[in-house]
Amino acid sequence: xxxxxxxxxxxxxxxxxxxxxxxxxxGATPSQKQLADALATKLNAKADAIFVxxxxxxxxxxxxxxxxxxxxxxxxxxxxxxxxxxxKAKLGKAAPAPAAAPxxxxxxPKLAEKKEETKPVAKATEAxxxxPKKVEA
Length: 137
Prior knowledge:
Number of helices: 4
Radius of gyration: 30 Å
């Protein structure tokens, strides 16, 4: 995999370096994680502090352009970039599994109780119909 960097911008507000470049490869398009590892070795940065936002390829081509953001630390990357489950899986980061909480089963009310609840609602609508309308003069 051969990487050439075309453009580099410093973004002081988000504390990151934005890198645009080209990558040539053989076989399949490299994944975001593979590209981040290659960028880390080329730019002397930490691989877990690099976020590859896009890899653009053309059909049948063995070259692609990419956009990546290089952060000073992993914590800064996590503050700025919000990843969903699929994006975390794509980058090789395991999403934390939710703790299994005991599920409490609520007993459903009996049919007789359900009927009693619906009857007052019907009476309330009938009472509204019987009220005379007030006319303001």
